[in-house]
Amino acid sequence: MRGADRDRYLLERRHQVSAARRWLLLQTAYTGEARRSTLDRLPFAPGSPIYDLGCGFGAMSLELAERFAATVVGLDVDAECLKTAGELAQAVPPARGQVEFRRADVTQLPPQWPRPHSAVARFLLQHLPEPEQAVVAWSQLIQSGGYLFLEDVDDGYTVQYPPPPPPWQRLLEAFTQLQALRGGDRQVGRKLAHLCLHAGLKLVRVECVPWATVRRESLEDPAVAFERERVVEEKSALLEAGLVTPEEFEQGIAAFAAAFPRVTYLSTATVQVLAQKL
Ligand SMILES: C[S@@+](CC[C@H](N)C(=O)[O-])C[C@H]1O[C@@H](n2cnc3c(N)ncnc32)[C@H](O)[C@@H]1O
Questions:
Q1: Is 60 a pocket residue for ligand 1 (Cβ < 6 Å)?
Q2: 1-24: per-residue pLDDT in tens?
Q3: Nearest residue by C-alpha to atom 26 in ligand 1
């Protein structure tokens, strides 16, 4: 119940965060149920200290604390996300456990910080230029017997019908390339198990968690509007990187708008890996 209250709180704040963070905020709110069902599959011991690496708006940090009566430290580089996370914690605090949010680059954590028993990194590795080094560092950070839980995207699982119109599809591909140029990887899901093995962790569970929906969509739907907005926000970066021409950009946006209203089938999956430090 408190989890759903947090999703609602975040949704109500969507006009108070910057446009650049709005997509993440909506995603956090809309995927609340899937996030909470993940908690059922985590074996964390009650009361154990946990780091939520790249915690974003902090919903998972709060839910981890509540579920495991744990002391959770939510870490992120983004001050705006952390500010909202702190406000969310005040508005709907965890019924059990404790949460603290700290600003930090989780690829360079100070060695003097207390070591958590376990750590969680959801949808973070897709943004990191050196995921191998990051997972090695996290495997050294957690205590023996503790767990590292990773969850991330893999665009290889995405199927849409009817398919996106070709000019919009080209724009989406340019958007993915932009993320890759920044060091990100939208196919990191398939690599999570390898990253853990490389770091010397024992694989406990590997799952591909599918999700499918059929929706009657119009251009006015918030989710549709934000799909467009997410790309529009990157217009100058896409043009500067030479990934699209101004004409291709405008054609893509026009094709997107022309595709609605429509009934859309969309299926995708995230990859979850639970690994243990022996
Ligand atoms: C896609 S969001 C995921 C947020 C959250 N884990 C969730 O599941 O909703 C990725 C988050 O990682 C943060 N991030 C990216 N690189 C980071 C780094 N090197 N150190 C700490 N946080 C980072 C971003 O600021 C963003 O909040």
A1: yes
A2: 689 999 999 999 988 998 778 888
A3: 56
